[in-house]
């Protein structure tokens, strides 16, 4: 089993190092690691955010453990050279279309949520976000209007096959959980969303046991704060899912806690915290590694078929929190390595 490690930019190397320590402690037979350059780090070293060697390693690997990409030094580069193209390119090239972003409150952290404790403690939801289409991958550019004004554009589109396959992912996830699926769109305004809604309804015929509802994205943003306990699985497009998953993270307590998996048709997966590279705190040991540690757990569960080991990681994170481990984002004073130490101590 080959794991590609792509630490990337900012806090990426610090958090991936802690997840790797936890994986090493599990001493999984036959697992091996190769590291690759991505993002701004890759651009600075070899002139491209997703170098061919990195892509080749990603394709060969059973799973990818990814830190974060994004570097303010690269903000003025042409778009195809920006760090973010590494993650977008990996999602596209490997067909990683099904992005699973669970959000659940650890009881110990209910007081860290931006919400009232009784509202926050009910959160146990999964966002299933499509990551191969939408406005992210449509035609985009800069042009001039007839009056000579600069105009930026990004075309939003989904074809029915793209919607169908992510809808199936949503229904199957709901079936394995509490049987409720909420499809989030903006069908009152967007044609893309009208097709989305029509296709989700078509697919629902295969899942009579799942209760399907539809919600406009603006209302979903509001409901996530008002009554997040109502959600089981949310299925949505690339852009809405990007936004709602960041929002869900703060409802849970900290963006430093949310893990994610992005799978393709063959269960090859990319695993990453949902947060970014946080350049403002990079290199200071302030980053919370738990989202990455939990992402490594998802990797063991979904791509390597090691559910017991995944359970051990999750239990160790819960125990570390119960024992009082708190990084800065959680109102504590423990640095990145100390948080890793706490998980390792809880593992044994
Ligand atoms: C995410 C990130 C990415 C996205 C960025 C880094 C391109 O925000 O994974 O949520 O927008 O998908
Ligand atoms: Mg995001």
How do the strands and helices of this protein lay out in sequence?
Layout: E1 2-8, H1 12-26, E2 32-35, H2 39-46, H3 52-60, E3 63-68, H4 84-93, E4 98-104, H5 117-120, E5 124-130, E6 140-144, E7 150-154, H6 160-175, E8 180-185, H7 191-204, E9 211-216, H8 217-226, E10 233-236, H9 238-252, E11 259-263, E12 269-273, H10 290-302, H11 307-322, H12 336-347
Parallel strand pairs: 1-2, 1-3, 3-12, 5-10, 8-9, 8-10
Antiparallel strand pairs: 4-5, 4-11, 6-7, 11-12
Bound molecules: 3-isopropylmalic acid and magnesium ion (MG).
Quick gist of this model?
With 348 residues, this protein is an alpha/beta fold.
Question: Could you explain how this protein is built, in words?
Answer:
It is found in: Cytoplasm. Its main location: cytoplasm. It catalyses: (2R,3S)-3-isopropylmalate + NAD(+) = 4-methyl-2-oxopentanoate + CO2 + NADH. This is 3-isopropylmalate dehydrogenase. InterPro entries: IsoCit/isopropylmalate_DH_CS, IsoPropMal-DH-like_dom, Isopropylmalate_DH. With 348 residues, this protein is α/β, with parallel strands linked by helices. It folds into two domains: 1-97 and 264-348, 3-Layer(aba) Sandwich (Isopropylmalate Dehydrogenase); 100-258, Isopropylmalate Dehydrogenase (3-Layer(aba) Sandwich), CATH 3.40.718.10. Helices cover 41% and strands 19% of the residues. The protein contains twelve helices and twelve strands. The chain has a ten-stranded mixed beta sheet with strand order 2-1-3-12-11-4-5-10-8-9, sandwiched between helices. Strand 11 and strand 12 (269-273) form a beta hairpin. It starts with a strand and ends with a helix. The mean pLDDT is 96. The protein binds 3-isopropylmalic acid and magnesium ion. The site of 3-isopropylmalic acid has 8 residues, from helix 4.
